[in-house]
Amino acid sequence: MTQRSSGGVQVMNADVPWDAAFDSIAYLDHNYRALQAEDAEILHIIRDHFGDHFRKQGVGPVSGIDVGAGVNLYPALAMLPWCDEITLFERSASNVAYLKSQIDGYDDNWDKFWAALCRKDAYRTMDMDPRERFRKVVQVEQGDIFDLRDEGRWSVGTMFFVAESMTAVHAEFELGVERFMRALAPGAPFATAFMEHSKGYHAGEHFFPACDVGESDVRASLEAFAGDFKVQRLESAAAVRDGYSGMIVAYGWRANSDSPIPVG
Hints:
Layout: E1 3-5, E2 8-10, H1 18-21, H2 24-31, H3 37-57, E3 62-67, H4 74-79, E4 83-90, H5 93-102, H6 110-117, H7 121-124, H8 130-137, E5 138-142, E6 156-160, H9 170-182, E7 189-196, E8 201-203, E9 206-208, H10 215-222, E10 226-233, E11 246-254
């Protein structure tokens, strides 16, 4: 059921025709055909975070997940050097079809994103061509984030522009973050990104809802599930589209145990 607030109707995730209406190629063309300044800044942050974590830990191959992958491959590329399995978890049928089309050899536009990652040694010195490794380790799974209940399964994870971009309801935003965090093993490094104060967005001709969140909302949604983590607003100020005030990145590690959530 659609929830209502004093401000009017709030569109819930279940109200949105994700399979019928989301134009994956239009969204890809607008956001990822070129490497934009915001994504370059995000790549800098996450390559250092993951690279430093795995260099210090010295662990063997791990399993990774990108929740709500959409048509964005760079979170998976950011996890590539350390994973023998990466799950691209996505709801929209058209996005799933695009992701599957990239497994055997991803498109040339992603080379710019890989090149940005290769400023870190772990990517530049990887012992396999990135397309070959991508083909070997990446799998696509269609599913709803609210049904993601494999707690503690993955040892590294990403979720970019998902929890706040699938609903206008704050409780669903918080639940989306919780489902992502609970899927990670204790101590797992993670990276997330959010559109700040988004009013919604287009994918082709159709308009999709967003939840209005800021840095304090992002921090509050993570506090019960993350150990050490950082929330920062990107310095890049160029607008990718209308209807938002900036981008927020949060990254850190899954807590060893969840903090009690206050009641009332």
